Amino acid sequence: MKEPCFRCKRPTYFNDKVGPLKDGVLFHKGCFKCWICGTRLSLKTYHNNRNDTQDLEVYCAGHVPTPGPHDPIPHRSNLLYSPKTKGEYPHNLMRPAAPN
């Protein structure tokens, strides 16, 4: 049996399928479009929902879900020390404060 299209659940055939994508789903070429606006997508233009790994739908760049205002900010340790502050960041976890 052919693997089903994620969107329409009908079988996909070699000459009319896109994928498997990173999460393992397949689409027909005609079904591979933004879930919100219906814009046709390609393997270079599609986006996944990075906030919800259970959401296997595909989105265009304008409709990809973004984090809400209360979602945690990704940790970036390179922001803790900057040449502009010379390590005087008040919560500097990377370098101890210089003795005065």
Give your account of this protein's structure:
This protein has strands at residues 17-18, 27-28. The chain is low in regular secondary structure and 100 residues long. Strands 1-2 form a two-stranded antiparallel ribbon.
- Let me know the largest β-sheet: 2 strands, antiparallel
What's the count of strands? 2
Q: Please report the distance between the alpha carbons of the first and last residues.
A: 74 Å
Trace the largest sheet across and list its strands.
Answer: 1-2
> What is the helix tally?
0
Shape assignment: elongated
Q: What's the SSE pattern?
A: EE
Radius of gyration: 22 Å
Low-confidence spans: pLDDT under 50, at least 5 residues? 75-95
Please give the share of residues in helix.
Answer: under 10%
Strand-residue proportion:
under 5%
Mean pLDDT: 77
Class by SSE composition:
little secondary structure
Region (Disordered): 69-100
Organism: Acrobeloides nanus
Keywords: LIM domain, Metal-binding, Zinc
Domain LIM zinc-binding: 3-70
